[in-house]
Design a protein that fits this description.
Keywords: ATP-binding, Nucleotide-binding. The protein is an alpha+beta fold. The chain has a domain at 62-150: Rossmann fold (3-Layer(aba) Sandwich). Helices cover 32% and strands 9% of the residues. It has a 3-stranded mixed sheet with strand order 1-3-2. It starts with a helix and ends with a helix. 12% of the residues are buried.
């Protein structure tokens, strides 16, 4: 910033960063979900609240946090459940000490396994411990979303 022009450009950039709305976000209302690239929000039968535990990094304890939250809610008398869609290394079966396969209901829907007062459904029940991670594809979660939508 030895030159007069470099300093001028620097301070002009700072002024832009201090603008009250630098990203041009709407001041009132919200952007419709579809314009933001989000799917349409639909209610889930018999579900009042959904708590999502997510991270862009692996191995940070998402399953442990989800398990502890569900157990705490169950202790308070709430009906709780976990849907573990981790296709790379599902750990909910281990955390809840559940290793059998879920059964099918009369209308061909999977019946969640339950322990400690929490209903659980995990990819780990479906692929097994020794199964190769063939399900671990980038489009794997899209197939899970489609299966949930059909049920």
């Amino acid at each position: 910033m030895s030159s007069k022009f470099g300093a001028s450009r620097f301070f002009h950039t700072l002024r832009a960063l201090q603008h009250e709305n630098p990203l041009g976000l709407p001041r009132t209302g919200t952007i419709p979900r579809m314009q933001r690239g989000l799917p349409e929000r639909r209610p889930i039968k018999d579900v009042k609240k959904v708590v999502a535990v997510s991270s862009a990094k692996g191995g940070v304890g998402k399953s442990t946090v989800a398990a502890n939250l569900s157990l705490a809610f169950a202790r308070q008398g709430h009906r709780t459940g976990i849907l573990d869609t981790d296709i790379f290394g599902p750990s909910i079966p281990t955390l809840f000490n559940l290793f059998e396969e879920p059964r099918l209901s009369s209308n061909n829907q999977l019946i969640p396994l339950s322990n400690y007062g929490v209903k659980t459904m995990s990819m780990g029940y479906l692929v097994g411990e020794d199964a190769p991670r063939g399900l671990a594809r980038p489009d794997g979660h899209e197939g899970i979303a489609a299966a949930i939508a059909r049920s």
